[in-house]
Design a protein that fits this description.
6 strands, single chain, alpha/beta, three-stranded antiparallel β-sheet
Length: about 170
């Protein structure tokens, strides 16, 4: 077959509901209309079943799978000191006392820009968005190595992908 249509969802646990709905729609409404002689289809309902079951973004190990996928183990040795510093600033060390998260409690607007204490929102996003690989309790923890589901997923991809010329990812 020439083209593989690849559908996966629930990298973050709560995404499974929307992913399930979209995959079900594709299976019921579109797949029967497609000539499958030259196409393959690969569906992954939930890459993070723990997160789905427990309504959490991360895995049971506290790993954000978006920060865990890499073709090279060098990812897990990246140091992101700024993200660790921001984790120490904004993740409460004690149980929370209200319904407002720490970031929102410390948010302020100044000159048309958003700040968390003295940290501009843009800097916060740039620092934490890269992930960090040293503190499992910190913001956007990417793990110390591939999570089991990522390792299995990667293995499956290495077996399946060489059989196709074109890969379409959804």
């Amino acid at each position: 077959k020439r083209t593989l249509f690849f559908f996966f969802s629930c990298v973050h646990g709560l995404e499974a509901y929307a992913g399930y709905a979209i995959q079900t729609m594709i299976l019921k409404e579109y797949l029967p209309k497609i000539n499958r002689a030259d196409a393959g289809f690969y569906f992954v309902h939930s890459l993070n079943p723990y997160g789905f079951k427990h309504h959490r973004r991360n895995t049971e190990a506290g790993v954000n799978l978006n920060r865990n996928c890499s073709a090279s183990p060098s990812l897990y040795s990246i140091k992101n000191d700024e993200s660790v510093r921001l984790s120490q600033m904004f993740i409460p060390a004690r149980p929370v006392a209200g319904t407002t998260c720490e970031l929102l409690r410390r948010r302020r607007d100044q000159g048309g820009k958003i700040f968390f204490d003295d940290v501009p929102l843009d800097d916060f996003i740039k620092s934490t968005g890269l992930g960090q690989y040293t503190d499992p309790k910190g913001l956007e923890f990417g793990g110390f190595g591939p999570e089991p589901q990522v390792a299995q997923f990667t293995k499956s991809l290495r077996e399946i992908l060489p059989g196709y010329q074109d890969i379409v990812l959804f």
